[in-house]
Amino acid sequence: MMITLFGQSYPWNAPEVLILAGAALALLVFLALILRAASRASASAAPLLREVAWLSHKVQSMGESQERLAGGLTHVSEAQAASQTSMLHLMETRLADVQRQMTEALHGTSTRTARSLGELQQRLETIDKAQANIEKLSGNVLSLQDILSNKQTRGAFGEIQLHDIVQKALPRDAYTMQATLSNGRRADCLIHLPNPPGPIVIDAKFPLEPYEALRRADSPRAQAEAAAQLKTAVRAHLRAIAERYILEGETADGALMFLPSEAVYAELHANFPETVREGFALKVWIVSPTTCMATLNTMRAVLKDARMREQAGAIRKELSLLYADVERLSDRVGNLDRHFAQAAKDIEDIRISSDKATKRARRLDNFDFEELTPEDPAKVLGPGVAE
């Protein structure tokens, strides 16, 4: 609420308004007292003057109180303004801190999100590669099944696996692949072992159909029929190898039947021991890729020993020549040592002559003729030089 005084507007609680209001109130009281005094003729003038003085004092006190009140209100207003300024500054600082923390948190979250997305992308790429490898492997498995389903391609598969194993185990001149024997039969591999035992044949066989039938058998009858088929097939292979590849005077008294499957080899030794013993009787030994490698390593040791025996005479001859060379070298070292000793003696004689010549030159330089005495020319010039 605003009050207009002398052309200016003041709030109702302004100090100026309160002072003027107090003065007006005092004036009214004073006028009332005058009127009251006038109406009372019997009142004396002295008490009236005291009352007027007291009222004047009260009015002055009220003015001072109004001034103090105005100063207090100004101080409170300034304190409130300072408090509001401080509060605003504090709120701005807090808001800045919160904003910075939120920015850092958002930046860290975005960084972690980007890193997680990158790792997820890498994992997806790894999964895609693994899926491609699985598809490729599945295709290779199907191709392998197609190869093994045909007898000719299955035989070629066994021969290739056998060639790979032999190539890793033996030197190139120790074997012959697809070697033709005197009876016209062609062996998958012929190992050139020395006599005894002589060259030995390795023939690859793969009785896959009866083995798969045995694995698929779901009844005792089917299992017995599949076992009989597997036994018959293996026996036929053993007899064929014994008849074709064991030739007296040409090959060793035995042969090897290579099974390119560890599973078939394990099945025979686990459940068909009589068939394996029949192979022993025919002197045909069944080997798998693992046992074939071990057998070939033994053959390599035999070949190495035989070649060392063949070269024993040449080695002894070379050792004899080496011994003669060592003796000749020893003689020449002795001669060289004697030459070095003679050269050292000659150098010592030269040093003695040089010392004597140096002494004579020093005496001549100092004109010490009286100290010069005749000496043996042979001592000065050395042996063979004096006249």
Q: Would you give an account of this structure?
A:
It contains ten helices and seven strands. It has helices at residues 15-39, 45-149, 151-169, 208-216, 220-245, 262-271, 273-281, 289-310, 312-365, 377-381, and strands at 2-5, 8-11, 175-180, 186-191, 200-204, 255-258, 284-287. Helix 1 runs antiparallel to helix 2, helix 3 (151-169) crosses helix 8 (289-310) and helix 4 runs antiparallel to helix 5 (220-245). It has a five-stranded mixed beta sheet. It has a two-stranded antiparallel sheet with strand order 1-2. The model is unreliable at 140-144 (pLDDT under 50). Helices cover 73% and strands 9% of the residues. It folds into three domains: 2-39 and 46-115; 173-310, no CATH class; 316-381. The termini are far apart. The relative contact order is 0.04. The chain has 387 residues and is α/β, with parallel strands linked by helices.
